[in-house]
Design a protein that fits this description.
There is one protein chain. The chain is α+β, with helices and mostly antiparallel strands and about 325 residues long. It contains 7 helices and 15 strands. It folds into 3 domains: about 1-85, Structural Genomics Hypothetical 15.5 Kd Protein In mrcA-pckA Intergenic Region, Chain A, CATH 3.10.290.10; about 100-180, Pseudouridine synthase (2-Layer Sandwich); about 185-335, 2-Layer Sandwich (Pseudouridine synthase). Helices cover about 20% and strands about 30% of the residues. Strands 5, 6, 7, 8, 9, 12, 13, 14 and 15 form a 9-stranded mixed β-sheet that branches. It has a 4-stranded antiparallel β-sheet with strand order 1-2-4-3. β5 and β6 form a beta hairpin. α1 packs across α2 (about 45-55) and α6 packs antiparallel against α7 (about 325-335). The model is unreliable at about 1-20 and about 85-90 (pLDDT under 50).
Length: about 325
């Protein structure tokens, strides 16, 4: 990879600003998105800012404007000019929040996220998110993904409870992100699914893509992205099973999609066929009991139970466990009749 760098200072009424120009020629690092490539090589600027530069035309490939999702090819020339001292700062509201902190040091924080807590601010969720609570308690968080996603290395659906990993420095963030990318992070989720599984353990290797009919959900699609989930049935009850899922890839809604495809959707998952309609067709008292349990639980039965990583600073293998919430335990007991 050839790298050329120029910088110059421009004086204006607001003082000195440093305009920097970066140019790259791709010789070996083909096959990755242009925004990811630039964020990996210009670490003083967030990926969100880089995506803005690409969208505005301040970053071009072979002299042409492209999308952030453009996949780099051999001999592509990337040029980007930006003011690295003018990284825009989003005002993320600091909010007092009772966070269940499983572990913290100067590099990482491990949170046991409750159900219904949105991870970061976005449309319709400007406050009351995990990031709002993190900003209140910690003065230093990584900003690789921009101010609205400070510290956030990966995410959980709002209604999924359990372990979420937070980075305190950009160095830790990049190290952890590489672990997720290279699939060395070990993850285990606990779930209650419908029906009894024919095989006690197995692997679901089915590609996943966004649904063409409803872009809010995902589906198994041979033209989608590689998606692999291993599973182990822990307990089987008359109508449901308790299952441990270990996703080897990190697609959106992966476990929920794979469980539904297998004919055993997650209990309470309205989006993927495990909701209230699934309670019908049983004897009246069974339908009543299942419907009541689902209503009281109030979400899909999925919990991020275990996580194992390489510590970004010490290099040691460390693992964390978030016990099942009381409501989850009560759900299992009410179903096991």
């Amino acid at each position: 990879m050839l790298f050329i760098f120029h910088s110059k200072e421009n004086q204006d009424s607001g003082g000195i600003s440093l305009l920097t120009f970066h140019s790259f020629v791709i010789e070996t690092e083909t096959g990755q998105r242009v925004d990811r490539f630039l964020s990996d090589h210009i670490r003083t600027v967030s990926r969100t800012r880089i995506q803005g530069c690409i969208k505005s035309g301040a970053a071009v490939v072979n002299g042409r404007q492209v999308k952030s999702s453009y996949v780099l090819e051999l001999n592509d020339r990337i040029e980007i000019s930006l003011n690295e001292l003018e990284e825009p700062v989003l005002d993320v509201r600091s909010e007092a929040m009772d966070l269940d902190i499983l572990f913290k040091d100067d590099s990482i924080i491990v949170i046991n996220k409750p159900a219904s807590l949105v991870v970061h601010p976005g449309v319709g969720h400007e406050s009351g998110t995990l990031v709002n609570g993190l900003v209140n308690q910690f003065s230093q968080l990584s900003d690789v993904n921009g101010a609205a996603r400070q510290g956030i290395v990966h995410r959980l659906d709002a209604d999924t409870s359990g372990i979420i990993l937070v980075a305190r420095t950009n160095e830790a963030h990049l190290h952890l992100a590489e672990q997720f990318k290279s699939r060395t992070v070990k993850k285990e989720y606990r779930s209650l699914t419908w029906g009894t599984w024919e095989d006690i353990s197995g692997k679901i290797d089915k590609n996943i893509a966004r649904s063409r009919s409803d872009p809010r959900i995902y589906c198994v699609d041979q033209n989608g992205k590689e998606s692999i989930t291993e599973y182990l049935v822990l307990n089987q009850y008359r109508y449901c099973s308790q299952v441990a899922f270990s996703p080897k890839t990190g697609r959106t809604h992966q476990i929920r999609v794979h469980a539904a495809w297998s004919g055993h959707p997650v209990f309470g998952d309205e989006k993927y066929g495990g909701g209230t309609k699934k309670c019908k067709g049983f004897l009246p008292d069974v339908t009543t009991n299942l419907s009541k349990a689902m209503t009281m639980f109030g979400r899909h039965a999925l919990h991020a139970y275990k996580l194992e990583i390489t510590h970004p600073k010490t290099g040691q293998q460390i693992n964390f466990t978030a016990p099942l919430p009381d409501a989850f335990v009560n759900l299992i007991e009410s179903i096991n009749v």
